[in-house]
Amino acid sequence: MLTKLLLLPIMGPLNGLVWIGEQIQERTNTEFDAQENLHKQLLNLQLSFDIGDISEEDFEIQEEEILLKIQALEDEARLELELAEEEARLQLELEQEQDFVIQPQLTTETDREKDLVLST
Question: What is the C-alpha separation between 8 and 53, in angstroms, rounded?
């Protein structure tokens, strides 16, 4: 327990980045499955058209719907990735700001004397 508390400033940001990575991986897998299913639907639609089960007009309408869904999934995945990258960048900046400590500038009596001599 004490080790966890002592390592929290170091491990906290790393654990946060790992969690973000896991979330991105999980969403990517889900979206990949959805996109794969849409591609299968598109292939089935093409086969149905080729064997004459549906008309060309129906094929074009259904094909456009499926392609729009695929495009929407790709756009959503791209936006989520950009959001996650921005979130990670902001988290890193915040952690760096918290770690940054301004040290007061100490001057010795000799430095003050030099400043007085230079300013006159």
Answer: 63
Pick the closest to residue 96 from 9, 4, 1, 20 (CA basis).
9
The confidence score (pLDDT) of residue 57 equals: 94
pLDDT digits (tens, 9 = 90+) for 62-102: 999 999 999 998 898 889 889 888 888 888 888 777 766 55
pTM over 0.70: no
| CA 119 from centroid of its chain's CA atoms | 54
Nearest Cα neighbor of 13 from 101, 93, 86 is 93
72's torsion region: left (phi>0), alpha (psi -120 to 50) or beta? alpha
The DSSP code sequence of 41-70 is HHHHHHHHHHTTSS-HHHHHHHHHHHHHHH
What ranges in the chain are assigned the alpha helix state H?
Answer: 2-50, 56-99, 109-119
Torsion-angle region of residue 97: left (phi > 0), alpha (psi -120 to 50) or beta? alpha
Q: Distance (Å, rounded) from C-alpha 13 to C-alpha 5?
A: 13
